[in-house]
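Hello,

Our lab assistant flagged a job as stuck in the queue for most of the afternoon. It eventually completed. Since we weren't sure the result was trustworthy after the delay, we are filing this so someone can double-check. Below is the sequence as submitted and the structure that was eventually returned. Let us know if re-running is recommended.
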Amino acid sequence: MTDDGARAFDFIHGSWRVQNRKLRDTTDPRCEEWVEFDATSEVFPVLRGVGHVDRMDVPDPPDGAPFEGFTLRLFDPAAGTWNIWWSSSRHPGHLDPPMVGSFAGDQGVFLADDVIGGYEVTVRFEWLAGKTPRWQQSFSYDAGRTWKVNWLMDFSRRASVPSGI
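-- returned structure --
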């Protein structure tokens, strides 16, 4: 396979400890209260490497009951882009609209339009690849003119994977 972007997310495969810092209520554009919590993540390739699944376990979030998150990332070779879908046990049966984007070097940018908390927003995911990856989510309420960061995740490798995740 050529270097067409299909391997851009290979850095995230494996077992991770995830330090989260997010606005308590990401659905409220007026929220300014930040909370922090830990999670674990297990990421493994699927479809012969042009996709992967990411399971995140959040045992003690500051804003509700424990939850499991699920991300499916698939590379579209015809478009040269990645599609990213998110779901969680907090919203059973719901799959968010796909984020679409690509990497330029070690930085990936992915966008989608959605309605969140009754507001039309453009959602942006930014990935910084490397040994200690960082993910950041921002919302724009004005069609991308300005952005409000509302969630950050810093990843560090775990030595082993406990059973159950």
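-- support follow-up --
The delay was a queue issue, not a problem with the job. The result is valid. DSSP finds no helices and ten strands in the chain. Strands lie at 14-23, 34-46, 51-58, 67-76, 81-88, 99-104, 107-116, 119-128, 134-140, 148-157.
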